[in-house]
């Protein structure tokens, strides 16, 4: 992170603005909203600036170094690069933060794009790479922000001290406030009915102390494949239990201050047993935490989510399960393979290819329908055996087959062959886990179209 975002309290402090035209006007407008006192210097000053600054200081003169003098912030907004540079040098020499409009290389601070729902401010910066992108992102965020945030923020500001008295424990206060934000109290505060809001925010009886567990599907890797519900709960949880299949990009979207617990398998370490994970979920929820159990793909597809919720039901812990995009769906789509197709495949089966005692033990005679696509999870180590058994039980040896490694991530790799050739191809290539194997005529579907 090249730039640290800070929100600057300029109330009653002085800002030196150099420039008298449109660029300066825009900055002055913003600075006035923050309550700063303005000292403006420029040889020519627009009428508009004059009328905006009637109760501030204006020097109608050329800029001189001595103007930089103990101000809280200096802004250079002239269209003369030499003047802008001189202002920057002078401010930096005196250790005063300086912004030069459109010249990040001369600035020590930059103005972010903002969404102003005063007292709530959202600021967006792109580390001076692209102001257009910054504004675009601001617009995306603006669309998703609930209405009435300003009123809710004002209300929470008003009751902040009292909330501290009533709920002295910081964790308890945070949960109480989070619960309030999802209660009908939010809309009450939004519409200015602070009395009704009060009942929810200060209600000690509400369930703020009861912990809960969210068993959430994190999808196959690409964070853009998370569901909105998954994202919301990822932002709400305070402890997160995750395993190998959850990609770094997804983990980045978990609330910053959540405690992260890795409960997967890492080479060289013993993996955490399922019983131990179940116990952890129960214990953390009983301690009052909002526990996020983040699982690759979908929690109920080869994910042992079922075992986890049994443990929660037995201990009467409230929980939610959120489906995720399972690896078969994500990988097939990102590899351009439709899992079913009117003419080629009328059904699809998800099968575990995990070998037990070195053998993949499956009801092979059920897997030989010409018009069915089969997706093998955990099929890498047993790949040769899977392909041989399918042919032995009647599938064509030239049935197309693909292996997809690290599907939907930037490292995705796809190898295509047939039941006969795929094991050899894989043996000659370095393939990284996790991988999924797709068998059926749909594998070559897209290639036929493009050739
Ligand atoms: N619950 C998960 C599956 C867990 S089993 C889901 O719904 O996707 C683990 C297996 O999932 C791996 O061995 C592999 O076969 C498959 N898998 C998970 N993510 C994958 C990915 N990004 N690319 C390829 N295969 C993946």
Task: For the structure shown, list the relevant keywords.
451 residues, Cobalt-precorrin-4 Transmethylase, domain 1, binds S-adenosyl-L-homocysteine, five-stranded parallel sheet, elongated, 35% helix, 19% strand, Rossmann fold, single chain, 4 domains, alpha/beta
How many structural units, i.e. domains? 4
The proportion of residues in beta strands is 15-25%
| Structural class determined from secondary elements | alpha/beta
Architecture (CATH level 2) name of the largest domain: 2-Layer Sandwich
Using the coordinates above, name the CATH class of the largest domain. Answer: Alpha Beta
Helix content: 25-40%
CATH superfamily of the largest domain: Tetrapyrrole methylase, C-terminal domain
Rg to the nearest angstrom?
30 Å
Quick check: average pLDDT? 92
Tertiary shape: elongated
Bound molecules: S-adenosyl-L-homocysteine
Biggest sheet record = 5 strands, parallel
């Amino acid at each position: 992170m090249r730039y640290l975002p800070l929100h600057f309290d300029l109330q009653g402090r002085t800002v030196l603005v150099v420039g008298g035209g449109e660029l300066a006007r825009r900055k002055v407008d913003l600075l006035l909203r923050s309550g700063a006192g303005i000292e403006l210097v420029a040889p020519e000053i627009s009428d508009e600036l004059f009328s905006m600054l009637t109760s501030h200081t204006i020097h109608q003169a050329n800029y001189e170094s001595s103007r930089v003098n103990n101000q809280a912030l200096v802004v250079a907004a002239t269209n003369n690069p030499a003047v802008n540079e001189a202002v920057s040098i002078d401010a930096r020499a005196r250790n005063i933060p300086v912004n030069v409009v459109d010249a990040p290389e001369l600035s020590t601070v930059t103005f972010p794009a903002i969404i102003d729902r005063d007292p709530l401010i959202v600021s967006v910066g792109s580390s001076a790479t692209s102001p257009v992108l910054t504004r675009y992102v601001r617009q995306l965020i603006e669309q998703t922000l609930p209405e009435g945030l300003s009123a809710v923020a004002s209300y929470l500001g008003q009751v902040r001290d009292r909330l501290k008295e009533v709920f002295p424990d910081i964790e308890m206060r945070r949960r109480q406030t989070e619960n309030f934000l999802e209660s009908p109290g939010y809309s009450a505060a939004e519409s200015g009915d602070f009395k009704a809001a009060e009942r929810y925010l200060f209600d000690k009886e509400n369930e703020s102390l009861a912990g809960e567990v969210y068993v959430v599907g994190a999808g196959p890797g690409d964070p853009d494949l998370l569901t909105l519900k998954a994202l919301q709960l990822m932002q709400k949880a305070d402890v997160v239990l995750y395993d190998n299949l959850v990609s770094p990009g997804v983990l980045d979207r978990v609330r910053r201050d959540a405690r992260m617990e890795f409960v997967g398998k890492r080479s060289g370490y013993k993996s955490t047993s399922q019983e131990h994970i179940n116990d952890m979920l129960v214990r953390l929820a009983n301690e009052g935490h909002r526990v996020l159990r983040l699982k690759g793909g979908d929690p109920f597809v080869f994910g042992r989510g079922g075992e986890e919720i049994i443990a929660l039901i037995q201990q009467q812990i409230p929980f939610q399960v959120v489906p995720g995009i399972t690896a078969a769906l994500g990988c097939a789509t990102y590899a351009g393979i439709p899992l079913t197709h009117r003419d080629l495949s009328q059904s699809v089966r998800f099968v575990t290819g995990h070998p037990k005692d070195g053998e993949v033990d499956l009801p092979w005679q059920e897997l030989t329908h010409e018009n069915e696509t089969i997706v093998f999870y955990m099929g890498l180590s047993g790949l040769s055996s899977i392909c041989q058994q399918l042919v032995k039980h009647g599938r064509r040896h030239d049935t197309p087959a693909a292996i997809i490694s690290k599907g939907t991530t930037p490292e995705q790799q796809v190898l295509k062959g047939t039941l006969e050739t795929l094991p050899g191809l894989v043996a000659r290539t370095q393939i990284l886990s996790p991988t999924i194997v797709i068998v059926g005529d749909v594998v070559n579907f897209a290639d036929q179209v493009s050739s």
